[in-house]
Amino acid sequence: MLLKRWIPLFILVFVGVLTLIHWFVPHDPIGSLGRDFSQFFDIIASFAIILGAANLLKLQSLKISQRKKGWPFNLVTIIAFALTAWVGLNWHSYFGSGHHYLAGTHVNNPDSHFFWVWWYIFTPLSATMYALLAFYVASASYRAFRARNVEATVLLVAGIIIMIGRVPLGQQFTAWLPDHGFWSGFRLERISDWIYSYPNGAGQRAVMIGIALGVVSTSLRLILGIEKSFLGEE
Amino acid sequence: MKPGNARRAALAVLFCLSLASVIPAAAQDLPAAPPAPPLDLTAEDTPNDRGHAIALSWVLSPDDDGSGRVTGYSVWRAVYRPGVAPADLDWTRVGSHSAGYLGDERLTHSDVSDDIVNNLPYLYRVEADGPGGASAVLLPASIMARAQWFNRARWNMLLAVLVLSAGIMYWIQKAQTSDIYLRPVAGLKAFDEAIGRATEMGNPVLFVPGIMDMDQIETLAGVSILGYVGKMTARYETPLEVPVSRSLVMAHAREVVKESYLQAGRPDLYNDDMIHYLTDDQFGYAAAVDGIMLRQKPAACFYQGKFYAESLILAETGNSIGAIQIAGTASPAQLPFFITACDYTLIGEEFFAASAYLSQEKRAIGSIRGQDVGKLIFMVALILGVFLVSLEAVGVRLPGWLDITALFDVSSGG
């Protein structure tokens, strides 16, 4: 009980209150403690990566040993993990010779093997996943922009105006309207800007205010020990 | 060309060449003078900080006009000692600036260093450096860095936090003696439905607690919701799959889910490997979770936490396998994606209220009422603000204490 409930609660209340106070009290030691806490977290999180890596290797090895469906992919994961760890931890791992072998700096050196893995394997793979978003946005928009009811129709119209108003070709549709004066407000790019800045801005701010209130309320519940579900309690 | 003309032309060329070689030599022989010094050096203690910082500013050297006579400025600091001539002090170079800030009247430099001892007097000098040497301007009086106990730029934020906290705590107290009605939230009511559907289909439940670490309150809120989902899957004996992208989240989520299975009376169903680590990388994680979805075909997908661009990749994949999907996040940019691709979405405050709502604990429900009262205060303040700004816009002069722009200016508070 002491280890699993009271000590975590004490740490949470102590750190939570101090972090809040440090936002308003810059004087040391409170000011520096607030900054130190975030560094403590980074250090703990860095060491915790060992837990994650061990878990990853354990599960992948288990699937290989049990010859589960798609086990060759698990093998690829382990080999990729081992190779990346090797070129990352071995700072002498360079193309060519005559380098100053310094631990840490080698990850940013274009001649190092680690950089090669990063630049020629990891980055394209990440970019590929990111590029998939284009297709997902198209399929999601297709579903969202169906005029099923009044709200969906408003969304559809606003979406079309924004899309057309943001591209030079679309802006040509209303280019014949004057640049200044009353009628200039009906140019597509102006309507698009107006929708973006006002109705959209107002909605975004309402959500942000709600989020801020939710954060205050959740933080208070945590600090006061009301919210204990993060400890596994009701 | 005639021979006489050619000779004259050759002589003219030789004369020009000899002149060209003499002029630079003459210029080099002239002694290069140092540029004019910068002017009006001022210094002040940086306000609202922990000390160890001095803000300096000066007017550019009159010679800093792009002619190259000034190449840069050097900032020097020394501990002030009464009775000692400035030239005899122990000067340290603490900063530099390039020349050529044409158009700027004053240059500023913030000297922030733990080497600056609070409440100790310092002198500064700024040198204009050039090919002809350096010339300096000295700070006329010593300056001390001081630490402040209160950041006055954030008084309005403190006021807001105090008012909101007081309101929430009042309702937490009140909730213990009276019943509080909470409006039904469709997304929260759908939790049971989604897990029930997964049970009927015999497929697992997938829970994604975002891609950020435990220092984000969204992750904390997401893991709290995971506790409830874990209890339900334990009760219905439905497999639960929780891939995570942070090791600390894995360790924490395991504790929470283990406790949930214990409380549901089914510790035998709990297995550490239900919650497993994939990768810290955003798109690597998205790819791995997509793979899990396509292989295991979960019947219910929960996305509760902090998300970025991977939100739509996850939600669209979940949609393609026909899973019932419930998302919850406080990331405004991802909300449209979740709303489009998921069956239910907990928007911002609903997401933070979810844990309290699901637990039905009286004090937690009271805090949600306090949150609603805070919202009311904000609404009144917004309407009042719009009214006052409109008055100002039509030329009505308001008293200083009603200067709405200054009152709600939080830009200086960071």
What is the secondary structure topology, with strand pairs?
The complex is a heterodimer of chains A (234) and B (414).
Chain A: H1 2-24, H2 30-65, H3 71-89, H4 113-144, H5 150-165, H6 168-171, H7 188-197, H8 199-223
Helix pairs in contact in A: 1-2, 2-3, 5-7, 7-8
Chain B: H1 3-29, E1 39-45, E2 53-59, E3 72-79, E4 92-98, E5 106-112, E6 122-130, E7 133-138, H2 155-175, H3 186-201, E8 205-208, H4 217-236, E9 240-244, H5 247-263, E10 275-277, H6 282-296, E11 300-304, H7 310-320, E12 324-329, H8 335-341, E13 344-347, H9 349-359, H10 362-393, H11 404-407
Parallel strand pairs in B: 8-9, 8-11, 9-10, 11-12, 12-13
Antiparallel strand pairs in B: 1-2, 2-5, 3-4, 3-6, 6-7
Overview of this protein structure:
The complex is a heterodimer of chains A (234) and B (414). Chain A has helices spanning 2-24, 30-65, 71-89, 113-144, 150-165, 168-171, 188-197, 199-223. The radius of gyration of chain A is 27 Å and the shape is extended. Among the domains of chain A are: 1-70; 145-227, no CATH class. With 234 residues, chain A is an all-alpha fold. The mean pLDDT of chain A is 87. In chain A, helix 1 (2-24) packs across helix 2 (30-65), helix 5 packs across helix 7 (188-197) and helix 7 (188-197) runs parallel beside helix 8. Chain B is of the alpha/beta class and 414 residues long. Chain B has three domains: 39-138, Sandwich (Immunoglobulin-like), CATH 2.60.40; 153-168 and 373-413, no CATH class; 181-360, Rossmann fold (3-Layer(aba) Sandwich), CATH 3.40.50. Mean pLDDT of chain B is 87; it is low at 19-30 and 410-414. Chains A and B meet through helix 1, helix 2, helix 4 and helix 8 of A and helix 2, helix 4, helix 5, helix 6 and helix 7 of B.
